[in-house]
Specification:
Elements lengths: L30 H12 L3 H8 L4 H12 L6 E5 L5 H7 L5 E6 L2 H17 L3 H4 E5 L12 E7 L8 H11 E12 L5 H23 L5 H10 L4 H10 L3 E8 L4 E7 L9
Parallel strand pairs: 1-2, 1-4, 2-3, 4-5
Antiparallel strand pairs: 5-7, 6-7
Helix pairs in contact: 2-8, 3-4, 8-9
């Protein structure tokens, strides 16, 4: 009698990041594909880890971004690197006419749709004002001057070429439009900086990996990507070089997070 056929065990997917590749993840030419694989792997635990490891401050940071953007009735908003839709939905609670969430990772967008459908049960008309698209912040699928507000929260450092993305944000904004960026920074106050470096470098990678059961290396990449990325002053300078005026920064939670706001003045033209 023949032996029953057996299915060989599945080979686990290789990690998106190894220790050697994290010396400077921003220098890698294949960064974009690795980031997409990483976020696909951690999508389902992403919100929980955000809440726990920001000590429940991440939603307050998003509310500050919405407040700073100053959305007027009927304005159009684009939330880039929208992830699971937290900031997109925060903008939907303003008087915006339309809110579009765009992300590179389909697994994140799937969760954003689910979250929005649940929210629309409590808020009639929400689903008609919010939609999601898969896309690349470096090559936005929109005409020049399509939006009044563009936002990106904790995503600019994950873009292959941040300057291309900022120039795209400027291009798709209407004159008078605003760009608001949330990004992590290293606090200037020494005791806070020491604590933050220890927490992000030693504690968070371990606890976040346990919560997510992640094998992609995501929670090793995330603190390394902050430490090797431009600081908030350099980011503000990049925005100015790309054409933004009246660029201002606001430190949040002792400088752990920084909100940067820039304006596209009336008559401003995109800089190639």
């Amino acid at each position: 009698m023949p032996e029953p056929a057996t299915t060989p065990p599945a080979t686990p997917a290789p990690p998106a990041w190894t220790e050697a590749e994290l010396t400077d993840p921003h220098a890698r030419e294949d960064k974009a594909g690795r980031v997409r694989a990483m976020f696909g792997a951690i999508a389902r635990s992403y919100d929980l880890n955000n809440r726990v490891h920001s000590l429940w401050r991440d939603q307050a940071w998003r509310r500050e971004a919405v407040r700073a953007a100053g959305v007027l009735p009927g304005e159009d908003v684009l939330d880039c690197a929208c992830g699971t839709g937290d900031l997109t939905l925060a903008f939907s609670r303003t008087e915006a006419g339309t809110v579009i969430g765009l992300d590179f990772t389909p697994e994140m967008l799937d969760l954003a749709w689910v979250k929005t459908e649940r929210a629309s049960d409590r808020t009639p008309g929400l689903a008609g004002r919010v939609r999601y698209l898969q896309g690349d912040a470096q090559e936005l699928p929109f005409e020049e001057g399509s939006f009044d507000v563009v936002s990106i929260a904790f995503g600019i450092r994950n873009v292959q070429r941040p300057e291309l993305a900022v120039r795209e944000f400027f291009r798709v904004l209407r004159p008078g439009g605003r760009l608001v960026i949330l990004e992590f920074d290293r606090p200037t106050l020494a005791p806070v900086r020491w604590f933050n470096d220890f927490y992000c470098g030693q504690v968070m990678p371990r606890t976040a990996t346990l919560i997510s059961r992640d094998r992609s290396g995501a929670y090793k990449y995330l603190p390394r990507s902050v430490g090797s990325f431009m600081d908030s002053r350099e980011l503000a300078g990049l925005m100015e070089r790309c054409g933004f005026a009246r660029v201002g920064r606001k430190a949040l939670t002792l400088g752990i997070c920084v909100r940067t706001l820039g304006h596209k003045d009336t008559g401003a033209r995109s800089r190639g």
